Amino acid sequence: MSDTPILGPWLERILLEHLVTERNLARNTRDSYLDTFKLLVPFLCAKLKKPDDRLAVRDITSELVRHFLTHLEKERGCTAQTRNQRLTAIRAFARYLGSRDPTLIGWCGQIRAIPSKKSTPQPIEWLTTAEMDAVLAVPDRKTVRGRNEYALLLFLYNTGARVSEATQLRVGDLQVGRRDGGYPLVTLYGKGGKIRQCPLWPETDSVLAELANGRSANDPVFLSRYRQPYTRFGVYRLVERCAANVPALKGRQVTPHVLRHTTACTLLRSGVDINTIRAWLGHVTLNTTNIYTEIDLEMKAKALALCDAVKPKPGRPWKEKKGLMALLQSL
Fold first, then answer.
1. Given this model, what pLDDT does residue 187 score?
2. Which residues pair with 196 in a beta bridge?
């Protein structure tokens, strides 16, 4: 191995081979790693005054990485969570190099020793049933565009699907309009290649059956007004635009992930057990799903009312007791 390996070939190997072939990470995870180095490489070039094709691996020092993380927070306005996410990608890169080049083990240890920053969890935003109904009422269902928008919003609310799961959905993934007595279902392809099936409400079944009528199995389910498949950005814009037309939601940031939280809270308040909600949303562990048990104050109040708190029995003052030994003998 060279004493000063060039950065470029190693980045190419981890992004095009390791993450894709060896680890088979989800597309969004790979994009997150790519975005990190799209920010880090120009930062290094500016600091070191070197072109990107001359950057060496050892140019990524722990000191410069710390400066880069500070740059993300102070100059780009990133949150501590985003800062930690970028650091995770850089650590993974260091670990990858250290496992393949023994001369970089010491460098790897220095990079991996950079601590994550403690961050305060953001409060979970979700909509009440009335607020969600108001959002669903925004699209004009008399038009083709409005019916498509309503179908997408209703689908997100029903399934709690991630944006990527909705944009990748194909007509062949739907089991709607069934006449064999079976439940309407949708097959979702989630993070890490995980597959799950989610039941559909009768209203969702009806809307999606109309949407999929006469289309082939490989056609995308949700099409924009330009008759093109919805993009991630397009779904975000749709949700934000419809929420902006609801006066009760003025000043609140409503995203597709807020609708996902809304699905979980709606199921929880309807009495669905937490493990079923975990499977419904496609969470790997219950630890992720348990956050929803903490956010509904109404449910907490009902739980408190059900508690049968035992009132302490009135005891005699200590001065009325005859003595310590008498107390011990009575026990």
1. 96
2. 188
In this structure, what CATH number is given to the domain that contains residue 108? Answer: 1.10.150
Strands 195-199 vs 185-189: parallel, antiparallel or unpaired: antiparallel
Residue 242 and residue 285 share a domain: yes
Domain span at residue 150?
129-304
Q: Which residues pair with 195 in a beta bridge?
A: 189
Helix (H, G, I), strand (E, B) or coil at 49: coil
Query: Where do the DSSP E strands lie in 167-306?
Result: 174-175, 185-189, 195-199
Given the residues 162, 230, 261, 278, select the one marked as catalytic: 162
Instruction: Kindly report, residue by residue over 53-65, the tens digit of the pLDDT.
Output: 999 999 999 999 9
- 106/152 same-domain check: no
* Encoded tokens for 83: 């800062």
18 catalytic per annotation:
no
Q: Is 292 a catalytic residue?
A: yes
| Residue in 191, 196, 215, 269 annotated catalytic | 191
Distance CA 220, CA 168 (A): 7
**pTM for the whole structure:** 0.72
Length of the chain: 331
For residue 261, indicate whether it is catalytic.
no
Determine how many CB atoms are found less than 10 A away from the CB of residue 65. 21
The residues with which 186 forms a beta bridge, in sequence order, are 174, 198
Active site residue 191: yes
The one-letter code for the residue type at 274 is I
Selecting among 83, 157, 230, 260, the annotated active-site residue is 260
Assess if residue 317 is contained within a domain.
no
Residues 26 and 159 in one domain: no
Q: Which of 33, 96, 230, 292 is catalytic?
A: 292
Q: Summarize the confidence of residues 71-84 as an average pLDDT.
A: 94
